[in-house]
Design a protein that fits this description.
mainly alpha
């Protein structure tokens, strides 16, 4: 697999590991045609869309995890026992019902 760790790639760190791995897999076969400039590899529109979908899914998952943590921490100041966890779980369940 080609080394796609140029300064360009390092400065544009991707939060979505799944999108990053997908793009690396897609770019690997064509990267040798762009020695020293893997960021200039051409992607098909469908490949770019898939990478964006993966990144959006990961961002949504991170936000749900963050919301769960915040709600649980807020409720710990008000309720005792499993109640904060239950409230946070129910909140996320309602979000997932959209």
């Amino acid at each position: 697999m080609p080394n796609i760790s140029s300064d360009y790639a390092k400065n544009r760190a991707m939060k979505s590991e799944r999108a990053k791995q997908y793009l690396l897999k897609v770019v690997a076969p064509i990267a040798p045609m762009y020695p020293g400039c893997p960021e200039e590899c051409d992607l098909k529109l469908i490949e770019a869309k898939r990478a964006v979908e993966l990144a959006e899914q990961d961002a949504e998952m991170r936000m749900r995890e963050k919301a769960h943590k915040i709600i649980k921490e807020m409720m710990e100041g008000v309720f005792q026992g499993n109640m904060p966890q239950n409230i946070a779980d129910e909140f996320i369940q309602k979000l997932n019902e959209e």
